[in-house]
Amino acid sequence: xxxxxxxxxxxxxxxxxxxxxxxxxxxxxxTFRLSMSNVHAIKGSRTVLVDAGxxxxxxxxxxxxxxxxIGWKDVAAVIVTHGHSDHAxxxxxxxxxxxxxxxxxxxxxxxxxxxxxxxLKPTSFMATLLKQFAIDPAYEAFKPDRVITGETRLExxxxxxxxxxxxxxxxxxxxxxxxDGRSFVGDMIxxxxxxxAFLAQRPGExxxxxxxxxxxENIRALLRGPARMHRARRLAQGDQSxxxxxxxxxxxxxxxxxxxxxIPRGADRAASAWQAELERPALHDDPGLSRGRAARRGxxxxxxRPMRHARRRIA
Length: 315
Description:
The protein is of the alpha+beta class.
């Protein structure tokens, strides 16, 4: 009988250890700042890259990865948030070097197959100038190994999280969301001015959107839905954006303390103001504006300029 009990206890202990090992640990996230976008490395039992950078970014990306102790063969997958050249250009080259699985949203297959941006729709005069003089739309074409049409879990690459489509910035835009609440939203939002050179922690509208209204609805959905407790964690370098969970007694899966301490105070204030801006009525209904001024301006669509009016609320 004693031997039987020992055997059962040993079996249960082994099963517990196997089960614990099968649970992906909270991943470390490293961010590599490139010329026009960022690449995020999610380090679980294996490494998953979020986005691939522009075609001139390979030396910088390779050096940053080496400094972080990540080799090409460590990369299990590359999730391309959308098919624009500043985020997708190195996808084919990274696959050659690493053998990684390339992941792309179904709506951007034509872009990736052609190796060329779709028709960019500017959201401002500055965006029109950038489109004409600063953006190289061509890159090496590729065919993804995994096409995302709905929510897909990431455990096969050792990451506790999911990827799902949120068309708006492009027809195939993706969001990567870790189970601890950290999210990677690509070009859904823009940080600061001139690619984050100024006021990098101020969230705002990106230069281009295929469907501007739908993109705004996506932002609202993230802020009001499961990601409602999120705030901007780092918007530097403009294009590539990451959201991190706001510490809250209601959440048991909040980010670790060391992560919370890295949230810049400016980003916290900007995101709070931005959320308030999104939840307000249209600008012409703003009671803070005089009736005469509102009447002169007339109806205006929602615009992502949170700090303009938010200064009065957070000063």
